[in-house]
């Protein structure tokens, strides 16, 4: 609890960003030790943090600090991860794929977004989007109708749903086992400068980003740019060349994004994504490793660290999994088949 309080206090402290926070984590055994030895005055901010934590508890909202094991592992890898993440609902323990696009859409874009969200959901993949009107909304709705989980990332506090017209959709997301998340303190209202920051979380928490439909100046293109900077795969759904709704997506393809011509192509491009039905055939002694690698490719040291296993035992298990065709090793990185 103390580490969470200090993390929230850092959120309110000027001059403490993700870079400084990570430096303190790496150089001290705990944040409390770091604050003491670095002589950081948090007297004012800790009072605000205590108040914020009480309010979050009352609203049923979890505040997950960057130092927590519950913090999404992929999001930890980006350049400026949020110091804390506000979570209303539950973050699914399955792969995440972002589905984004413009607010103004065509019938084609809405149909594809809904169908794609449903397809991903039915294949045990969580759909991440921004709760905006248009493509985002239809991707969320498709995921819900596919009986799976979806995550909405906000450019406001999780207690300040925006747009208000999607309030009922936000409730459905939480009620069906998904989550509403944000890096912004409770009570934060939506503002123009918040949305690019929101977009880096959408791409950062996801294994890949799919842009369904986007005009030339769509915010979805910002999300795609963040995904590329973060080393994630970007897909774009082709559209009519004379449609203003598809100019951005078609340009992404021209610049090197993978064209998504068939939803099943995702499994070819992202080898670690597999249908959930495969899981039941994994031998019990391999399940922990397989489920970890199904979320993200990792090195043997990263696997050992996350599962608290010794290297010799892990090496033997990974070799057996390679023989069985469950995982493969490329350049020192393991991934599921």
Describe the protein's architecture and organization.
- It is a single chain.
- The chain is of the alpha/beta class.
- 45% of the residues lie in helices and 14% in strands.
- The chain is built from 15 helices and 12 strands.
Question: Care to give the gist of this entry?
Answer:
With 337 residues, the chain is of the alpha/beta class. The protein is 45% helix and 14% strand. The strands form 2 sheets. The chain has a 9-stranded mixed beta sheet with strand order 1-2-6-5-4-3-7-8-9, sandwiched between helices. The protein has a 3-stranded antiparallel beta sheet with strand order 10-12-11.
What overall geometry do the principal axes of the alpha carbons give? globular
| Proportion of residues in helical segments | 40-55%
Question: Any idea what the radius of gyration is?
Answer: 20 Å
As residue ranges, the low-confidence spans are 275-280
| Strand composition percent | 5-15%
Distance between the termini: 39 Å
Supply the CATH class of the largest domain: Alpha Beta
Give me the number of helical elements. 15
Task: Find the count of extended strands (DSSP E, 2+ residues).
Answer: 12
Say what the CATH topology of the largest domain is: Rossmann fold
Domain DprA winged helix: 289-332
Family: Belongs to the DprA/Smf family.
Keywords: Coiled coil
Coiled coil: 25-59
């Amino acid at each position: 609890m103390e580490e969470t309080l200090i993390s929230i206090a850092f959120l309110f402290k000027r001059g403490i960003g993700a870079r400084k926070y990570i430096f303190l984590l790496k150089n001290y055994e705990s944040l409390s030790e770091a604050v003491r030895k670095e002589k950081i005055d948090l007297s004012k901010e800790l009072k605000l943090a205590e108040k914020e934590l009480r309010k979050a508890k009352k609203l049923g909202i979890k505040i997950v600090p960057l130092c927590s094991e519950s913090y999404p592992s992929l999001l930890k890898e980006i350049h400026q991860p949020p110091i804390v993440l506000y979570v209303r609902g539950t973050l699914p323990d399955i792969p995440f794929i972002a589905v984004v696009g413009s607010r103004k859409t065509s019938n084609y874009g809405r149909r594809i977004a809904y169908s794609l969200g449903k397809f991903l959901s039915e294949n045990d993949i969580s759909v991440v989007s921004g709760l905006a009107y248009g493509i985002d909304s239809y991707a969320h709705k498709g995921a819900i109708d596919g009986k799976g989980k979806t995550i909405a990332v906000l450019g406001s506090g999780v207690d300040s749903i925006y747009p208000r017209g999607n309030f009922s959709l936000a409730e459905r997301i939480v009620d069906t086992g998904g989550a509403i998340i944000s890096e912004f303190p409770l009570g934060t209202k939506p503002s123009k400068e918040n949305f690019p920051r929101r977009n880096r979380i959408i791409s950062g928490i996801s294994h890949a980003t799919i842009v369904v439909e986007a005009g030339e100046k769509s915010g979805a293109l910002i999300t795609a740019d963040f995904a590329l900077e973060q080393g994630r795969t970007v897909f774009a759904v082709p559209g009519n060349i004379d449609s203003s709704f598809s100019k951005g997506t078609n340009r992404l393809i021209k610049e090197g994004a993978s064209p998504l011509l068939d939803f099943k192509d995702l499994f070819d491009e992202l080898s670690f994504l597999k249908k959930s039905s495969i899981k039941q055939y994994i031998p019990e002694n391999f399940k922990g490793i397989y489920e970890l690698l199904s979320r993200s490719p990792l090195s043997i040291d990263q696997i050992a660290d996350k599962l608290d296993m010794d290297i010799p035992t892990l090496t033997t298990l990974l070799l057996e999994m390679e023989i069985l065709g469950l995982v493969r090793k490329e350049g020192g990185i393991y991934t599921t088949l």
